[in-house]
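Raw record, unedited: Yip1 domain-containing protein
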Amino acid sequence: MINIEYLIDRVKLVTLQPKEAWAKISDEQIDLKDFLLSYVLPLVLIPTIASFIGYGLIGLGSYFKVASFSWGLHQAILAFLGAFLGVFISAFCIHKLATNFGTQVSLDNAIKLVAYSYTPIWLAGVFYILPSLTILALLAGLYSLYILYIGFVPITKVSEEKKTNYFIVSLILVIGVSVLVSFVIGVILISAGLQTY
């Protein structure tokens, strides 16, 4: 069951006061299924629905319209699956890397770290309604990386001397995972007949 008031309060806390958010979130225990359904899913639906509308109905440019149901469905599926797979694979990498940097991070905590960090980029997914504004979502992605950085030590409990290396390696993996997941899903969707235009 989605508690809208809780969702809005948590989103505001994470995006507007990330340091305070991580101090509060770091010791919280999550029920993974509940967390995915009550926090991640509603936010992931923002870029999913916006992508379908933007690429399926509105299209690109003011002088010409390039939109199709197939393209909208392609972008919506890409946004939805990319978000969930990105969270899980990135979290798995952070979880597995932990011992190399002298710490232990449960998979649940790694998922919590990645998912909360993705909050701004999911919110900015609303800009996909007008595909020409997609750059604003990418800028929100930079803020997501900042939130990931702020939350890294509180969640992973990594030592000060190892935090930079752990974060950089994790960041490379998170970005790499996002690119790879998007590419693979895109290829599968195109091969299934969902064209990109």
